[in-house]
Inverse folding.
């Protein structure tokens, strides 16, 4: 069996953590397993990687906060993860991911707010259309990052964030016109 490196970024559904599982196959015991992570806005960090395990990283492990300080949410944005074993030029895998946990948390709050609003059917339906559009941009950002389309990933993320800000600011004051014009 040949050594083949692979990693899976597993959702933790938490703004404080990033989960990475080892999905590699090894011919023997690997030497010096290392994870290099580029954190948006903070640069690169190189940390030991636990093989055949689920690795969970937080702001302290990633060098954003000091040991003993409260953990901070990890920033959204493009992360580059490079898993290597010795010799590094022979065995490595690189993955780009678009982290959207903070944006998703805001989206979830907006979605939950929708069910509590007392609006007429056209307005409520318009809000569902708006939230579906926002979710489409979030998922598009993730897909673009997975396919190394970094500029597109960032543009889609920024558009989703802008749309979500507008949605939250307007609340139940939308007119429902878009739904009535396009879907009714």
């Amino acid at each position: 069996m040949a050594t083949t490196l692979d990693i899976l970024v597993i959702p933790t559904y938490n703004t404080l953590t990033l989960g990475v599982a080892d999905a590699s196959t090894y011919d023997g015991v690997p030497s010096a397993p290392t994870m290099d992570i580029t954190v948006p806005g903070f640069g690169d960090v190189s940390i030991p990687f636990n093989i055949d395990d689920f690795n969970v990283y937080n702001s302290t492990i990633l060098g954003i906060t000091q040991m003993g300080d409260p953990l901070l949410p990890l920033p959204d944005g493009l992360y580059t993860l490079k898993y290597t074993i010795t010799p590094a030029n022979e065995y490595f895998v690189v993955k780009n991911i678009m982290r959207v946990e903070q944006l998703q948390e805001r989206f979830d709050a907006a979605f939950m707010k929708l069910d509590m609003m007392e609006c007429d059917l056209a307005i409520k339906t318009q809000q569902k259309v708006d939230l579906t559009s926002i979710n489409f941009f979030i998922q598009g950002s993730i897909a673009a990052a997975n396919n190394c389309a970094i500029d597109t990933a960032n543009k889609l993320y920024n558009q989703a964030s802008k749309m979500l800000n507008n949605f939250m600011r307007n609340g139940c004051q939308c007119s429902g016109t878009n739904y009535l014009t396009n879907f009714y």
About this structure: The chain has a mean pLDDT of 87.
